[in-house]
Amino acid sequence: LQKIIHNLFVRESGLKRYFLNTSWLLMARVVQMLVSLVVGGMVARYLGPENYGTYNYVISFVGLFAALSTLGISSVVVKDMLSGTATPAVAMGSGFFLKIVGSIVAFLLVALCTFFIEDAAAVRWLLLIASVQTITKSAEIINAYYQAKVASKRTVQAQMVSLVGVNILRVIFIFSEQPLAWFIYLLPLDAIIIGSILTRFLRNSEAAISGWKLDTTYARQLLKESWPSLFSGLFVTVYMKIDQVMLQDMLDASAVGWYAAAVRLSEVWISIPWILAGSLFPAIVNAYKESKDLFATRINQAYILLLSIALIVAIPVALFAPFIIQLIFGTDYNFSVNVLQVHIFSCVFIFLGSISNRWLVLEKKQQYWMYYSGLGALSNILLNLLLIPRYGI
Questions:
Q1: What is the pLDDT of residues 301-351, one digit of tens each?
Q2: Could you state, in order of their start, the residue ranges of all structural domains in the chain?
Q3: Exposed, middle or buried: residue 43 (CB in 10 Å: 0-12, 13-18, 19+)?
């Protein structure tokens, strides 16, 4: 493992920049993980399993439509800026326009669904509030520019400001004993803060918002190339979020709360492989252009690295699950232990999938990722229908 890390990041001087970029992102993620675990545990204890279940049900329901707000275009935008297919002004302007349109569609679909679901009026209102984040997250297209420039320090700075601000508010809400709705109001705020700061950072760059241009020809090409990633993202979201929606309908909010506590401890690791894959993507693109052998070597090393990290995470978490649940969430969440011991191993497949996704984007074969993701989502739904009534969470 040490040799692979050396080969990927250190041996070639050109890759040291990618290592520094990745270090910034990983450092930020470690801080986010710690804050998320501490404050997230406080929120879960304060709300209790039932309200915490409702909170996560709302997030999961809105999350089912999240792929429509991203359209799967970010990786393609990064690739096009790196290859020179599109200038930053055209790539960012066209990408932002598509994201805004997708976000509005996602918001309207959530609003439409609230008329047909059987949840209480208060829950339907929470769904509408949470769905605003699909629009506010459109500014995340700016991350693509910093990925292409291997300059994730800016993204990290924006995320840290938002992390501190939003979690201070969560703690204040806990000690002032505010209702569940107040915690939902914070969901769009996070994206607003990050987007505002990143927009300010861009002011004097070649990708300044004032210079963004909508190129309809490029936008159509972007959609044509990214539609498999769009459906892949939709299927992955269904795979990851549908459990909590189905548990709410088939069992109750408390079951969602217990399940969500375990899932939160699994998902806290999920961004790590995407950070690594995103930071390595420029190096992989350059290797692809330089030599097929070098490209194959870097892909294989990336797979081994991510598999090793996934197992290093999953095995200890599974072994110490009772202690971890008790420490973070308390005795009210003891039913979460068995869920965590099984669910944590989903990280292995997610870690490996992060590299597969980038590889297929580079080869313009995203449709294969769409097929795999669709099969996984369908299997998850069918197994939930079969197993939840029999075994519960």
A1: 888 888 888 899 999 999 999 999 999 998 899 999 999 999 999 888 888
A2: 2-386
A3: buried
